[in-house]
Specification:
Blueprint: E1 2-6, H1 12-23, E2 29-34, H2 40-45, E3 55-60, E4 64-70, H3 73-85, H4 88-96, H5 99-106, H6 108-124, E5 141-145, H7 149-156, H8 158-163, H9 170-182, E6 188-193, H10 197-212, E7 217-225, H11 232-239, H12 245-254, H13 260-289, E8 295-299, H14 307-319
Parallel strand pairs: 1-5, 1-6, 2-4, 2-5, 6-7, 7-8
Antiparallel strand pairs: 3-4
Helix pairs in contact: 1-14, 3-4, 3-6, 5-6, 6-9, 7-10, 10-13, 11-13, 12-13
């Protein structure tokens, strides 16, 4: 199981989708699960809103298939009651009375148990169902587009959340099964960050929190990385405000631009800002590397993200060692 988190705005849904595609290479079956109710996966793949069912959303070269599920706490509860108690009608009655919303509002840990429970059930599921517990796993991997880093620890530590609700009984047993998968050494929590101070700080905090919970940290995906436009010495000079105006003016003049001298001064300011940004990114990258988690870098996509772009990002991940 691959759990993908990151500060809002870092592109974690895009990274989760690209990761699912990378894991589906060479004929793999991968389930991509969304738990925040934003329909971000549907938007990303240009499909209608996803229902509460697993459906194929993308085919990957080599025979791989990506399925998607928009997890919903209410629907998960209905399924839970039907599977374990044969009480679907009772659950529907509770829904009409608003009891489900009431329960998950006053006990948010219950909502997290239901959402994570659906994803972890998909991890454990085998071909042939309960009658063949030794059968092949239904999915080769499950990727969860999880809540942001500010909530990831509480979201994943559902066992302690439920302890205050039920120390024994079916809800506690369900939470224990969820935690068995989340704590498994085959589950990893991946963090998505930009080369900016706030996302990087949240990533470092999240890694520390997840590690303290006894969960396994995976990789840090540095998203929207930009290549430097200047070589080393020129970069340092530009950052210090020592850009060669004469060289800039000569280049502008050779390009056929008038007022090359004035333009060179303006361009020098832009070059200096770029250089300072690059040096900041290098420092932030070093801080992220200091967490000990492997770094995977994905480029900034100027034209937005579509299926072709996702294929390119998945290929970049594979080139950096991301695979089943």
């Amino acid at each position: 199981m691959h759990i993908v988190t990151g500060k809002g705005g870092t592109g974690k849904t895009t990274v989760a989708a690209a990761l699912a595609r990378a894991l589906a290479a060479d004929g793999g079956r991968v389930l991509l699960v969304e738990v925040e109710g934003r329909q971000g996966i549907a938007t990303l793949f240009g499909s209608p809103p996803l229902p509460y069912e697993e459906r194929e959303i993308d085919a990957v070269p080599g025979g791989g298939r990506v399925f998607a599920l928009a997890a919903d706490a209410e629907a998960a509860l209905m399924e839970y009651l039907e599977l374990f108690y044969g009480m679907r009608r009772a659950g529907q009655a509770l829904t009409r009375l608003g009891a489900v919303d009431f329960a998950t509002t006053i006990a948010p840990g219950l909502r997290d148990v239901l959402l994570t429970g659906k994803a972890t059930e998909a991890v454990r599921r085998r071909e042939g169902g309960r009658r063949r517990p030794e059968g092949r796993f239904h999915y080769d991997a499950v990727v969860m587009d999880a809540p942001p880093t500010g909530r990831i620890g509480r979201f994943l530590n559902v066992n302690s959340e439920v302890a205050g609700l039920a120390r024994v009984g079916p809800i506690r047993n369900h939470a224990d099964r969820v935690m068995e998968v989340i704590r498994s050494d085959r589950t990893r929590v991946h963090f998505v960050s930009l080369l900016e101070e706030m996302p990087a700080q949240e990533t470092r905090n999240g890694i520390a929190e997840v590690g303290a919970l006894g969960l396994h940290v995976g990789m840090v995906v540095v998203n929207m990385a930009r290549p430097p436009l200047l070589p080393g010495d020129a970069l340092s000079d530009a950052a210090a405000g020592r850009a060669d105006l004469g060289e800039l003016a000569a280049g502008l003049k050779a390009a056929g631009l008038d007022d090359a001298g004035d333009l060179a001064e303006s361009l020098a300011e832009e070059v200096g800002a770029h250089a300072r940004r690059v040096l900041l990114e290098r420092r932030v990258r070093a801080e992220l590397a200091g967490t000990g988690a492997p770094l995977v870098e994905l480029p900034l996509l100027e034209g937005g993200v579509d299926r072709a772009a996702l294929e390119g990002l998945a290929r970049r991940m594979a080139e950096q060692g991301v695979r089943r």
